[in-house]
Design a protein that fits this description.
Elements lengths: L1 H18 L7 H5 L3 H7 L32 H12 L11 H4 L14 E2 L2 E2 L27 H6 L19 H9 L2 H11 L6 H14 L6 H7 L13 H11 L2 E3 L5 E4 L7 E2 L4 E2 L50 H9 L27 H12 L18
Antiparallel strand pairs: 1-2, 3-4, 5-6
Helix pairs in contact: 3-8, 4-9, 11-13, 12-13
Main location: other
InterPro entries: Cyt_c-like_dom, Cyt_c-like_dom_sf, Cytochrome_c_Peroxidase/MauG, Di-haem_cyt_c_peroxidsae
Pfam families: CCP_MauG (PF03150)
Length: 396
């Protein structure tokens, strides 16, 4: 059984690799028609003129990439886009991945708990910006998914979220496959991408992961400055003095006395949120927020975080609440949290970088420093990701 699964996986990898080859289209591909796709999506999904997902411009200073064996293809990401926005992916045809990950708020949510088919999510929905460009390959706040591919179908199989759990009277994931297999545009799309109308969980996972990894944001003020700078540590020519001060504070580790009080240096955000990707260090542990959305008990297992890019829009508007509980509602409050770390009873997983000398860190930031860090964080926001049609709802 194990060998069979490995062979199936290898065949799928070969199939996906062939989808990346845009130079050798077959006569059939060129002349094929896709009436169901055309009828459902019109010009928003044009299989003969695919959007560019596979060969987007990536800055030279961006070096992290967790795509692994699932390289992005234009075909695969196109299918992934349809799956991402399709409410047929839920048991009652009301919820899609995009219900909790909205393009207008950097593919996160602007409510604390996202609504599913049978209630609400237990944690705030994480933004999906630049998921590809991170060392950490695990997903969810508590890292319970070993890869993005595995993560993509877990909400679908969750009773509360999309309802194909196969338990407690729910339909199973196989029922979803049967459901999708009867949809004409999926027959065409899966054959277009994989050469066969057959739908499997692995194919769904690979396509969704390709689309999600394609969602990238590198058109920020920070990127303009970094492109002409030798490294992050120097002042950026396009930054204001305040933004450069905030960047220096963000990047520079703090100096503490024996009681955990900052006596100099910066505030060391980059120790966990590493420039230039601003991804989370895989060795990070709990950040001191151990509450739950329900208000019952504590939750100390959250060690992952999304990229800090596009925390806010360029105008400073927050892209939804921050942290797994959504308890933080401004950049000032986020900085304030790290400014005074309390070692709460029961938190046995607190990151040691937040407890110098065994004490919760006291950064003693003044208003000028706080405003400078906020100004810098705002430089990490672009504009394209909010409006680019290749990441938009194809059903509209």
């Amino acid at each position: 059984m194990k060998l069979t699964k490995i062979l199936q996986f290898c065949v799928l990898i070969v199939t996906l690799s062939s989808c990346n080859d845009t130079n050798e289209e077959t006569y059939t591909e060129i002349t094929a028609t896709y009436p169901a796709v055309e009828a459902e999506f019109g010009s928003s999904v044009d299989l003969k003129n695919l959007a560019n997902y596979a060969n987007q411009t990536i800055p030279a200073y961006i070096t992290k990439d967790n795509s692994g064996l699932n390289a992005i293809s234009d075909k695969g990401a196109t299918l992934g886009r349809v799956l991402f926005y399709d409410t047929k992916m839920s048991a009652n045809n009301t919820i899609s991945c995009s219900s909790c990950h909205k393009q207008e708020v950097a593919f996160g949510d602007n409510v604390v708990a996202s609504t599913g088919v049978n209630g609400t999510t237990g944690r705030h929905s994480m933004r999906l910006i630049n998921t590809r460009f991170a060392t950490e390959s695990k997903f969810f706040w508590d890292e319970r998914a070993a890869s993005l591919e595995i993560q993509t179908t877990m909400p679908i199989k969750d009773h509360g979220e999309m309802g194909f759990s196969g338990t407690g009277g729910d339909l199973s994931f196989n029922d979803l496959i049967i459901k999708l297999s009867a949809v004409d545009y999926y027959k065409e799309l899966f054959k277009f991408v994989y050469g066969s109308e057959e739908i499997t969980e692995t194919k769904i996972q690979f396509a969704l992961a390709q689309f999600i990894r394609s969602i990238q944001s590198f058109d920020s003020k920070y990127d303009i400055g970094r492109a002409s700078a030798p490294n992050d540590g120097v002042n950026f020519a396009n930054f204001t003095a305040q933004e450069n001060q905030g960047k220096n504070l963000f990047l520079t580790p703090p100096a503490f006395n024996a009681s955990g009080v900052r006596t100099g240096g910066g505030i060391g955000c980059a120790g966990c949120h590493r420039a230039p990707e601003f991804d989370i260090d895989p060795n990070s542990r709990n950040n001191g927020i151990i509450g739950t959305i329900s208000g019952v008990g504590i939750d100390i297992t959250n060690t992952r975080a999304p990229s800090l890019r596009d925390l806010v829009k360029v105008d400073g508007t927050l892209n939804g609440q921050i942290m797994h509980t959504g308890v933080i509602t401004s950049l000032q409050a986020a900085i304030g949290h790290y400014g005074t770390i309390t070692i709460a009873p029961g938190n046995t997983n607190l990151d040691p970088r937040l407890t110098p000398g065994g004490f919760g860190q006291q950064l003693n930031l003044n208003a000028t420093e706080v405003n400078a860090v906020i100004a810098f964080l705002r430089t990490l926001s672009g504009t394209d990701v909010y409006t680019n049609t290749k990441w938009s709802n194809p059903f509209n």
